[in-house]
Amino acid sequence: MKRRGFSLVEVMISVVVLTVGILALAGTSGAITRMISQGGQLAASALAVEGRIDILRATPCASLAGGSATQGQYALTWTVASSGFLRTVNVTVSYNTGRGTRTDTYQSTISCAT
Fold first, then answer.
1. Which of 34, 23, 8, 4 is nearest to 98 (CA)?
2. pTM
């Protein structure tokens, strides 16, 4: 007479494999949550920089100069370099991520030709 079913060893191995898979999914979900949070902070910092560059574009070319400002949790610092009719603006934004301070640099060019 043949018996059907699984042995105790087979059941234990399948439970171990299932446990490893569930733990891997749990670890991945934590990493994904961190990445989504970082993406939101990066997008918000880019918006802060975009606003500063818009203000600099509206400034007459003769008055363009470097400076710094704080916008919410974002510390902005910018420099302006002249080259003929072009002004190269470098904006550095720093903010706290909870795991440390992150600093991103953006660059834009403003034409002063009339």
1. 34
2. 0.72
59 found inside a domain = yes
Which residue type does 112 have? C
Q: Does some domain include residue 43?
A: yes
Phi, psi of 44 (to 5 degrees): -65, -40
Task: Report d(CA 78, CA 107) in Å as an integer.
Answer: 9
Domain annotation covers residue 3: no
Model pLDDT for residues 56-96, shown as the tens digit of each residue: 999 998 899 999 999 989 999 999 999 989 999 999 999 99
Residue 68, in any domain of the structure: yes
* Number of structural domains in the chain: 1
